[in-house]
Specification:
Helices cover 28% and strands 31% of the residues. By secondary structure, it is an alpha+beta fold. The chain starts with a helix and ends with a strand.
């Protein structure tokens, strides 16, 4: 009986420790998260992001300025069906006069809840892009995996591919003939990489790509 209660206590502790919360979302660095750059000023992107979060089916819990360079929005998806829901943190950061960076972190409220959504970033990016389109000076970038994937062209260099996927860092492997990047959604392969395993650069030519 004692063993049962000990095991139950351990499982309960694991459950509690693996739960995300508004407080836990605040602890991540401002530079953490999947990143996308938008060709629009800070105020326009900030307004579009708030609308995009709501359009993505999330409820905004808190928003605040971490400092003069980082506006933070924390949102959540509540219990639905077999999912306990998720917490999402969005950071909006001015990059220069005509460009703004958005970073998104998604955490399941309960880590072991596999039916919960693991990533809201591309949904939010797509809506931001949609809400910004009303500005005639806005130049849309691919914001969904499918659109980005369709934009790949043979001969692209490494920087061009990185820019398409919003600086999501891939893992890589290589030999003397090729450099292969592994993304969560697919694999891209470069040839003629004089810069070796460097993540970025204008060297290398995109040779092939395959969705998982």
């Amino acid at each position: 009986m004692r063993k049962f209660w000990y095991l139950a206590s351990v499982l309960c502790l694991i459950f509690v420790c693996s739960c995300a919360s508004v407080s836990s979302m605040k602890k991540y660095s401002m530079e953490t998260g999947k990143t996308m750059r938008f060709n629009a000023n800070y105020e326009a992107v900030k307004s579009a992001t708030e609308s995009a979060i709501i359009a993505s089916g999330l409820e905004i819990e808190e928003f605040y300025d971490q400092d003069e360079f980082h506006h933070v929005i924390i949102a959540q998806k509540r219990l639905t069906g077999g999912s306990y829901g998720e917490f999402v943190r969005v950071v909006i950061q001015p990059s220069d006069k005509d460009e703004t960076v958005v970073r998104v972190i998604t955490k399941r409220k309960v880590a072991m809840n596999v039916t919960a959504k693991s990533d809201y970033s591309y949904t939010i990016y797509s809506y931001i892009d949609k809400f910004l389109e009303s500005d005639e000076n806005y130049e849309s970038r691919p914001t969904t995996i499918e659109e980005s994937w369709a934009s790949l062209k043979k001969g692209m260099n490494k920087n061009q591919v990185l820019d398409l996927f919003g600086d999501i860092p891939p893992s890589f492997s290589s030999n003397q003939d090729y450099l292969k990047w592994e993304y969560p959604f697919g694999t891209v392969t470069f040839i003629d990489c004089s810069g070796g395993n460097n993540l970025g650069g204008t060297d290398g030519k995109l040779d092939s790509w395959e969705l998982k």
